[in-house]
Amino acid sequence: VQLQASGGGLVQAGGSLRLSCAASGRTFSNYVMGWFRQARGKEREFVASISRSGGRTYYADSVKGRFTISRDNAKNPVYLQMNSLKPEDTAVYYCAAGSGFSSADEEYEYDYWGQGTQVTVSS
Fold this sequence. Notes:
The chain contains no helices and 11 strands.
């Protein structure tokens, strides 16, 4: 599976961005999809995941209520809608595909990774 993340950019605090992750190579709906992020000097951390059907979603506490993950299995992207952005959300965001549980929140649970897209939130 090849993953291509896009939609990052520079936004002011309180603003919104929508990230997209397009998948190719295998049947998209066979995979749990997740978003992770890595701020400069920090380890990569889980942001959100979504089940194969899209019916179940999971979020890190730090983004709950502000971010929404969704997927369109017909068109194959997975989205991360980010609202009420804060400077601490600044990071490179990665999408990932995994074969395990939809609640997967550890890097090792994902098999494929996109290249990352930079999100910068100014104060």
